[in-house]
TrEMBL record:
Monomer. It comes from Advenella mandrilli. Binds 1 zinc ion per subunit. Involved in base excision repair of DNA damaged by oxidation or by mutagenic agents. Acts as DNA glycosylase that recognizes and removes damaged bases. Has a preference for oxidized purines, such as 7,8-dihydro-8-oxoguanine (8-oxoG). Has AP (apurinic/apyrimidinic) lyase activity and introduces nicks in the DNA strand. Cleaves the DNA backbone by beta-delta elimination to generate a single-strand break at the site of the removed base with both 3'- and 5'-phosphates. Keywords: DNA damage, DNA repair, DNA-binding, Glycosidase, Hydrolase, Lyase, Metal-binding, Multifunctional enzyme, Zinc, Zinc-finger. DNA binds at residues 91, 109, 154. SUPFAM superfamilies: Glucocorticoid receptor-like (DNA-binding domain), N-terminal domain of MutM-like DNA repair proteins, S13-like H2TH domain. It holds the Pfam family Fapy_DNA_glyco. Its EC number is 3.2.2.23, 4.2.99.18. The keyword NADP does not apply. The active site is at 2 (schiff-base intermediate with dna), 3 (proton donor), 58 (proton donor), 264 (proton donor). This is Formamidopyrimidine-DNA glycosylase. It catalyses: 2'-deoxyribonucleotide-(2'-deoxyribose 5'-phosphate)-2'-deoxyribonucleotide-DNA = a 3'-end 2'-deoxyribonucleotide-(2,3-dehydro-2,3-deoxyribose 5'-phosphate)-DNA + a 5'-end 5'-phospho-2'-deoxyribonucleoside-DNA + H(+); Hydrolysis of DNA containing ring-opened 7-methylguanine residues, releasing 2,6-diamino-4-hydroxy-5-(N-methyl)formamidopyrimidine.
Length: 275
């Protein structure tokens, strides 16, 4: 958390405002994230025009003519637009001052990242953090057949396989639980045992779940907000099982169960998701 819908919501909010505009100043108040923020980041970016705001998996990619600024929101990060000169909030660690707007990166836990990839280092898609990522869920090549074929040698539980991001990116912990509920698949089911028919259900559930999350501005558990400062509304509108332990299933009234898979919480209905 934030997951793909939250990052994509942020990307859209940034792209609609600052793409094509000059970055006048970067103010770094805290350099210690997952990896240190470059000490000379302002020197690198000051006076350059942002060409495009892109995304790969959970990484924001701010493309300039001389390289790409990679931003990861970690477990608790968000980027919001602020008024010029607005007082800093606690955990506002990086300020991006463009010629038309100012945005701030807020990250209480500092598990995120702000990294610079110069153009001379080659294609950003070959970066160590991106090269092994799976297909994007909205890529036309992501199909039920692709999913079924990719699962054939996967002996782990389907929830765990979805989370590792090597087959398809962006189906993080929240949306994996929700997608598996929609597809009526038990999260503990061995991935390679899923038939093509069940993969068709799961594929459709993933697309529908992520689309719902995008339309509602993502999910907010604690810290995430969109660039406009508003919380995501997915939980209020759509969530069926996540964070609903012991509450009645919205389809059959059976109490929702919580288990731990790979140190992450998984929620499911033992009746609707029997197999």
């Amino acid at each position: 958390m934030p997951e793909l819908p939250e990052v994509e919501t942020t990307r859209r909010g940034l792209d609609s405002v600052i793409s094509g505009h000059q970055l006048n100043e970067v103010r770094v108040h805290q350099h210690q994230f997952r990896w240190p923020v470059p000490e000379n980041l302002n020197e690198i970016l000051q006076g350059h025009v942002l060409q495009a705001c892109q995304r790969r998996g959970k990484y924001l990619l701010l493309a300039f003519e001389h390289g790409v600024l990679m931003i990861h929101l970690g477990m608790s990060g968000s980027i919001r637009r602020v008024a010029l000169g607005e007082f800093l909030l606690k955990h506002d660690h990086v300020e991006f001052v463009f010629d038309n707007a100012e945005f701030r990166l807020n990250d209480p836990r500092r598990f995120g990242a702000v990294l610079w990839h110069p153009a001379e280092n080659g294609d950003i898609q070959n970066h160590l953090l991106l090269a092994r990522l799976g297909i994007e869920p909205f890529d036309p090549q992501f199909s039920p057949t692709y999913l079924h074929n990719a699962l054939q040698d996967k002996k782990s539980a389907i929830k765990t396989v979805l989370l590792n991001g090597e087959i398809v990116v962006g189906v993080g912990n929240i949306y994996a639980s929700e997608s598996l509920f929609r597809a009526r698949i038990n999260p503990q089911t061995t991935a390679q045992t899923l038939s093509l028919a069940r993969c068709k259900r799961l594929h459709q559930a993933i697309i529908e779940t992520l689309n719902d999350a995008l339309e509602s501005g993502g999910s907010t558990l604690k810290d995430y907000t969109g660039t406009n400062g508003e919380a995501g509304a997915y939980f209020d509108i759509y969530a069926a099982v996540y964070d609903r332990e012991k509450l009645p299933c919205k389809k059959c009234d059976t109490p929702v169960r919580k288990i731990i898979q790979g140190q992450r919480a998984t929620y499911f209905c033992p009746k609707c998701q029997r197999y």
